[in-house]
Design goal:
It is a single chain. The chain is 38% helix and 17% strand. The strands form three sheets. A seven-stranded antiparallel sheet has the order 2-6-7-1-5-4-3. A five-stranded mixed sheet has the order 10-9-8-11-12. A hairpin with a 3-residue loop joins strand 4 and strand 5. The longest helix has 35 residues. It starts with a strand and ends in a 40-residue tail after the last helix. The protein binds zinc ion. The site of zinc ion (ZN) has 7 residues, from loops. The site of zinc ion has 7 residues, from loops.
C-alpha cells in the first residue's frame, strides 16, 4: 500500500529562493497547459493530448526567450505539474461521464501565486536523494535540512515539497509499504458518527467529540481581530496572516493525532468495521456546518479504510439512506423519524433504545448483510498521511529521534 510520510524541512534563504522559482515555473507550465486546452476547445479543435502538451510547453517553450527560464529548474517538476493538470482533467471527464462516483468534480482552475498552498513534486526520475547525512537532495535546489520525526520505512518513489499558509515547508514522501496483517479477532463493529458523541460503537462504547476548533475559538477570534486591524498590503498584515494560519494548522494537527489514535484502536480490536456513508458535503451547508467541519468524519473514515487494508481487516461503508436511527435493532420495525433531541426511545416491542447505540447496531447489521455480496472496498493510495511515530527503518534516517511535537499537514 502507498502511504505518505511527512516531515518538516528547513530550507536556507537561498534554497527558499530556489524553491520559489520551482513553484513559479511549475505554476506557469500548469497554467499554460490549461490555457492551451481551453483555447483549443473554444476553437473547436480536438483535445490536446498529454505528450503534445509536454512537448510544446516544456521542451519547445524552453527555446523561446519568453520561457527560457524554465530551463533553470528540474524538468521533472514541470512534467509533474502537467501530470497534475492531466489528472484534474481526467477526474473532471470521469465525473461528467459518471465513471467517477461521488460529488461532481469541477474543471481545472488556474493556479495563483497567492494560493495558500504551493507544491511541487519530484519523482525518482529527478534523482532526488536522501543523503547519508540526513539531508534531502533536490535537483537544482540543493541539500535541504529535514527533521526526521520518524524513519522512512522504505525508499520513497516520489517527494512533494509543500509550502503551507503558515510559511512552513514540508517534504511528503510516497512510500510503498508492505501490509502487516494483525492476528485475527472475532469482534465486528458498527460505528455511528455524530456530533454529541464523535463515535458510538455497536458494543456500546462512546467517544466524546473533542471539538478542537471550538476549544481554540477564543484564540482564533483574537488573532482574526488582530489581522482585521492591520493595513492592507502592510508587512504587519502578512505576519498576522501567518499567525492565523499557524493557529489553524495547530488545530488540524491535534485533531489528526487524536483521530489516528482512535482509528488504530478500533482497527486493532475488530476484524470488520462498518460505518455509515455520511453526506458530509450536504451537512456542511446546514446550521451545523462548523461542528461538522470540526468533527472531521471524512478524514476519520479514510483512516479506518487504509488501516483496515493495511492490517488485514474488513472495512465497509453502508448506504447512507438506510434509516439506522429509526429502525429497532431488536425487531426490525421502522418506527418513524426521531428528532435529534430524542436520545432514548421505546419500541412497541418493548425494547428501550439508546438512539446512537441502536443506530450503530443497525449499521453493523446492514454492513454484515452487504459484505455477503461485497466486492471489497477500494483504496485510494496515499490520500491520507501515515500515522506519526510508526516504526520503520531507513538507512539515512535511522539515527533520528522519534520526537514530533508539531505540524505535519494533511495533503
Ligand atoms: Zn422493536
Amino acid at each position: 500500500m502507498q502511504l505518505r510520510y511527512n516531515y518538516r524541512v528547513y530550507p536556507t534563504p537561498g534554497q527558499q529562493v530556489a524553491l520559489a522559482r520551482v513553484f513559479g515555473c511549475a505554476r506557469v507550465v500548469f497554467n499554460d497547459g490549461l490555457r492551451l486546452r481551453q483555447a483549443a476547445r473554444e476553437a473547436g479543435l480536438p483535445y490536446v493530448c498529454d505528450a503534445e502538451l509536454s512537448k510544446r510547453l516544456i521542451t519547445e517553450a524552453k527555446r523561446t526567450p519568453e520561457r527560457a527560464w524554465l530551463g533553470e529548474v528540474s524538468a521533472v517538476a514541470l512534467q509533474q505539474a502537467l501530470a497534475d493538470l492531466n489528472a484534474a482533467y481526467r477526474n473532471f471527464f470521469n465525473s461528467l461521464s459518471g465513471k467517477r462516483k461521488g460529488r461532481k468534480v469541477a474543471p481545472p482552475r488556474f493556479r495563483s501565486r497567492k494560493d495558500s498552498r504551493q507544491a511541487i513534486r519530484f519523482t525518482a526520475n529527478a534523482r532526488f536523494k536522501v543523503l547519508d547525512n540526513g539531508r534531502l537532495r533536490l535537483p537544482k535546489v540543493g541539500d535541504l535540512a529535514v527533521r526526521w520525526s520518524r524513519a522512512l520505512p522504505a525508499d520513497p518513489s516520489s517527494v512533494t515539497i509543500v509550502k503551507d499558509a503558515a510559511g512552513r515547508y514540508f517534504a511528503s514522501f510516497v512510500v510503498t509499504t508492505a501490509d502487516e496483517p494483525l492476528p485475527p479477532v472475532d469482534a465486528q463493529v458498527g460505528i455511528d458518527l455524530g456530533l454529541t458523541h464523535f463515535a458510538v460503537l455497536s458494543d456500546g462504547k462512546k467517544t466524546a467529540a473533542p471539538k478542537f476548533l471550538r476549544r481554540a475559538a477564543r484564540k482564533l477570534r483574537r488573532l482574526q481581530q488582530d489581522l482585521s486591524r492591520k493595513q492592507r498590503g502592510s508587512n504587519n498584515r502578512k505576519k498576522a496572516v501567518v499567525k492565523v494560519a499557524r493557529a489553524h494548522a495547530q488545530v488540524a494537527d491535534t485533531r489528526r493525532d487524536w483521530q489516528h489514535k482512535l482509528s488504530t484502536a478500533i482497527i486493532r480490536d475488530n476484524q470488520a468495521v462498518h460505518v455509515e456513508d455520511l453526506c458530509v458535503a450536504g451537512l456542511g451547508r446546514t446550521r451545523l456546518a462548523k461542528s461538522v467541519h470540526d468533527a472531521g468524519w471524512a478524514s476519520f473514515t479514510a483512516m479506518l479504510q487504509y488501516k483496515a487494508a493495511r492490517y488485514g481487516r474488513a472495512f465497509a461503508k453502508i448506504d447512507r439512506f438506510t434509516p439506522t436511527s429509526q429502525t429497532c435493532s431488536t425487531c426490525g420495525r421502522i418506527d418513524g423519524p426521531k428528532p435529534l433531541n430524542v436520545r432514548t426511545w421505546t419500541c412497541p416491542c418493548g425494547t428501550v433504545h439508546d438512539r446512537d447505540v441502536n443506530a450503530a447496531i443497525n449499521i453493523l447489521a446492514a454492513g454484515r448483510a452487504e459484505s455477503l455480496n461485497a466486492c471489497g472496498a477500494q483504496i485510494r493510495p496515499a490520500s491520507v498521511p501515515a500515522q506519526r511515530r510508526e516504526a520503520g527503518i531507513h538507512p539515512g534516517a535511522a539515527r533520528c529521534s522519534a520526537r514530533s511535537a508539531e505540524g505535519i499537514p494533511a495533503l
